[in-house]
Every structure is written in C-alpha cells, then in structure tokens.
Amino acid sequence: MYGKAEDKLKEAAGAAQETWGDATDSPDHKVKGAARKYSAQAGYAARDVADTVKDQVQANPFAGLAVAAGVGVFIGYLLGRK
C-alpha cells in the first residue's frame, strides 16, 4: 500500500514539474517532469500486475507452478541453443 501511495505522489510531482516547465517555457523541466510522471505510472502499473499475479497464484497454485515450469523450460531452451 505504501508503494502505491509513493508512486501516486511521484506522479503528481512529475505532473507539477511538467506544468512548471510549460509555464516557464523550460524544456529541461518539461522533460524531467514527464520522465518522473511516466516512470511513476510504470511503477504503479508494475505493482498492480505483481499484485494480480500474486492473487492468481494464491487462488490456483498448481496453474502458477505449471506456468513457471513452462517459462523455465522455454528460457532453458533459448539459452541452450547454439
């Protein structure tokens, strides 16, 4: 829960910095604000995906184990090719 709140705060700070860059016509502030805003949104999305996966695996652990095994075999196949 703390991570999501932190991401929302960083997103708001990035949006404010981007708006400040627009108001002062500063491309440096615009770019840094946009980068901060979008990285916070990506972090929020990644946490949401991780929470969803965790809930799905807790609901059906055998399917999660099968998917993890399949991914492991696939990666092993890709790394073992010559």
From TrEMBL:
Keyword Lipid biosynthesis listed: no
Domain DUF883: start-end pairs: 55-82
Region annotated Disordered, chain positions: 1-31
Pfam families hit by this protein: DUF883_C
Keyword Membrane: yes
Keywords of this entry: Membrane, Transmembrane, Transmembrane helix
Transmembrane portions of the chain: 62-80
Basic and acidic residues composition-biased segments: 1-11
Stored Gene3D superfamilies: YjbJ (1.10.1470.10)
Protein name (database record): CsbD family protein
Native source organism of the sequence: Pantoea osteomyelitidis
